[in-house]
Model the fold of this input.
Amino acid sequence: LSPATVNLVHSDLSSAFKRAIKWGVLHHNVIESVEAPKIECEEVEVFTPQEVRALLSAASGDRLEALYTLALSTGMRGGEILGLEWRFINLDAGTLDVRQTTTIKGQLGTPKSKNSVRTLQLPQIARDALRIHSKSSRFVFPNRKGTDFIRYNSFVIFHWRPLTQRAGIPYKNFHTCRHYVASFLLGKGLPITAVARYLGHDEITLLRTYSHLIKGMEHLVPAAMD
Done:
């Protein structure tokens, strides 16, 4: 089991034992005597601005061009984009509601967490791409028959991987789009809470995942105070 999984089990068991003590079933929380393993966070990969330009250039005219634009400008998760329906988009208001996602079992489900349920104000580049995108299906990005959403594995194999090859960049997984948006927004000095809410993260997860991007920004503090 990974350290993260062990930590999750440790936390759940500790909560259960605390509740048992509160009910008078137990007198001691034995989990407190067990140290959870330390989680070493690896630095996430991100696209360079040059790679993003190459991807968007290679996607020009592609039937999923709006999908790639959305991923690289909003940081939405792959399942959130593939499960997106037109009823959740208001282009006049420039908003997009994240209310469902695709699952690994090929079904529609609820978003990853309560923080993932959110309303996004869309960047202009995303609004423009969606305006010219085909609206012939219930789903924004349907399969070729237009009857259902694209399965994530099929999307990666038949769409994402070929796009990176056409763009002439080293392959990185689709989730790197999300990492790119997070790193870009944090690099612009936006408040951590605002970035976390936009991405559907909680602040602690955001800090743990992208803390290396925030380090080195201490030099901005004196000027901000002045």
Q: What stands out?
A: The chain is about 50% helix and 5% strand. The first helix runs from residue 3 to 22. The two ends are 49 Å apart (CA to CA).
